[in-house]
Amino acid sequence: MKTLTSMALIAALPLVAQAQDTLHSTAVQPTPTVTSVSIQDMRDLVSAEGHMVGMDLDGTVGIMATTESGLSFLMRGQACQDSTTCLGLEVMVVFNGEYSAEFANTINQRWSAIKATSTDSALLLSRYLILDGGQTSANLQINLRNTIAIADSIQAEAAPTEPAEPVPADEPETLLAADLQWGDDTGDYANDGACDDARFESDGDDWSYQRAHVLRDATDCRAQFEAGALTLYVDFGENSGDYINDGTCDDNRFTGEGRSILETDSQVKRDAVDCIEAYRAGTINRPS
Questions:
Q1: C-alpha distances in angstroms, 135 versus 7, 23, 69, 141?
Q2: CA 125 to chain centre
């Protein structure tokens, strides 16, 4: 099984409007955060993990790279407003071959850290990270390692036309803290030991307060999640949809005046930025 690296496929993938900052670390307790990336930042991240940096991608902020085992992957910016820096980062692995939709769905059920999509001639594996809320550089490395490890595992499986074996009932997947977006500590009561993020809370008396603090109590919520004290109720997904960053949530799992008229399932978990803002503002409701 070989990875597909043709630029024709890259050109066919949806690109997003481009954004504005340069990579910088802001002194936020307890660790510095990264809020945007450039091509050089991507090269540094790939090199730090021991992978070989390849050519830059045409028409977008991104690079090609290869692991020591020979697995090729792409790293490209999303939400870029100029030709140098981006507020989102996507890692993608492309496998040649005829893969069924059922095979891709099996992968999505087994590994929540990535999104698998089958086309007529390839299987696409991607991991998208939203940076404008802040990510530690260590977390970027962990997400890259997880994506490569999952891709290596999938590459070693049976022929692409055969569905993968289901995960045994006694070996359920564990959702890791590194798989989730945590945001920052800009909430009113950050670092007080209590998680104020509504994604991890039931609909209670302080619902409007918790909803406004989505992705704004990172340290408290991550600590409790890692301790096994929290459950993720709302997953906004990534920001790779057809109408992202337009101020309207296109994810049809939500209801309310903040959601667009689109009814298709194709935008589910693919309009994260718009849906998060609408959720914070109270113009969409928690999915049923």
A1: 29, 11, 28, 10
A2: 11
% helix, strand, coil for the chain, step of 5: 25, 20, 55
| Largest Cα–Cα separation, the chain | 54
Half-sphere exposure of 217 (CA within 13 A, CB side): 26
Contact 232, 221 (CB under 8 A): no
Domain ranges of the chain: 7-155
pLDDT per residue as tens, the chain (288 positions): 444 444 344 444 443 333 333 334 444 345 568 888 888 999 999 999 999 998 988 888 899 999 988 888 999 988 887 778 898 899 999 888 778 888 888 888 888 878 988 887 888 899 998 887 788 888 888 889 989 988 888 877 644 445 555 555 544 455 688 878 888 999 999 999 999 999 987 766 567 888 889 999 999 999 999 888 888 888 898 899 999 999 999 999 999 999 998 888 999 999 999 999 999 898 998 886
Q: Which residues, listed in sequence order, are joined to residue 78 by a DSSP beta bridge?
A: 88
pTM, two decimals, is 0.45
Which of these, 127, 158, 134, 111, lies nearest to 240 by C-alpha position?
A: 127
**Encoded tokens for 24:** 């910088």
Where would I find the H helices in 64-158?
Answer: 101-110, 137-155
Instruction: Look at domain 7-155 and name its CATH class.
Output: alpha beta
Residues contacting residue 81 through CB under 8 Å, at least 6 positions apart: 17, 18, 19, 20
- 3-class state of residue 200 by DSSP: helix
